[in-house]
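Methods — Computational structure assignment.
A single polypeptide chain was analysed. Its primary sequence is given first, followed by the predicted tertiary structure written as structure tokens.
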Amino acid sequence: MNKLYEFSQQVIHPVDDQDTPTNLAMMPKLFRLTENEPMDDRRTQCTATLFHDSASLRVHWIASTPDMRLKSGDMVSPRWFGRATCKGGAIKISRLVLMERPEPWQNLFNTIPHDWVNDRALVRQAARLMEGLPRSYRYLFNAIFWDGQRFKRFCTVPSSVNGHHAADNGNLQHAVEVAQSIQQECQSREMSNVGLGILAGFLHDAGKADEYKLAPGGKWQMTDRGKLLGHKITVIEWIAQAKAKWNLLMPENHYMALLHCLTSSPSAPEWLGIRKPAMIEALLLSCMDRLSGTEDLMRRCTTDQNGWGAYHAHLSGKPYRIDGHLKVSGEVDDHD
């Protein structure tokens, strides 16, 4: 394997300045810009660190007028400088291009840096789910989260402050759990749309990216938007804005179906004007959303032994557990 870079989950540094990549065609086309380093004293050489789950690297290039739009979290594409050479541990490129338009086939979960989400198994699960979506669905997701800072918040915020999935990355963990559960249920039902179910699972709490923020003391707290509007309104705004800005070619019935899944509720009173689930995918989203949240609370509150666990207000009581191991008929205990 070439010494300059390996397809791994770490930033790659060349062993010496003579090492060069031998197969640039195998490198990802798009990267996440994770660090845009200060220019040199002559204000001409730029250096940056780029991340992709399969190949991460440091690059440098010469620019008489540096692109001041480049910032951490952006999606970028390096333009190679003929035969690549290295200097000071960085690959020389011609320039770094800011990718301003969402790429329909890009899997954004392959560009999540380790300092966003340390649980790489969770990231891989999300990436596999995204790979199964049709082009128009993935294009919508990418259009919503092409903003790197918004996508970072989606991946890093909790799903609640005091309830289920209340830790860092809780929102992403909950989204993956719900999307996976819906995928499994849809696959056994001919009248359901698996892709729609997965997309709804990812987006149902996506607005929480703007619902929580870190307080000065390091604890999560609700934003004004979260208090006044809530994540359901926020994600509908994002979907409508993305559809209008990028002229997404999603069939109108699919667009309405997605919005129905995200806004319908089986328990909302009639006077609110909220529709009851009229689709299997909407019903599954409601069920799997509640199951994921309740299961997380029970997991945290259940005792390691048989019996009652700890009280949690969102469970309206204490969870109860029995040992899952039962003696098979005819099995003899050691003391028998």
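Note: The first helix runs from residue 120 to 131.
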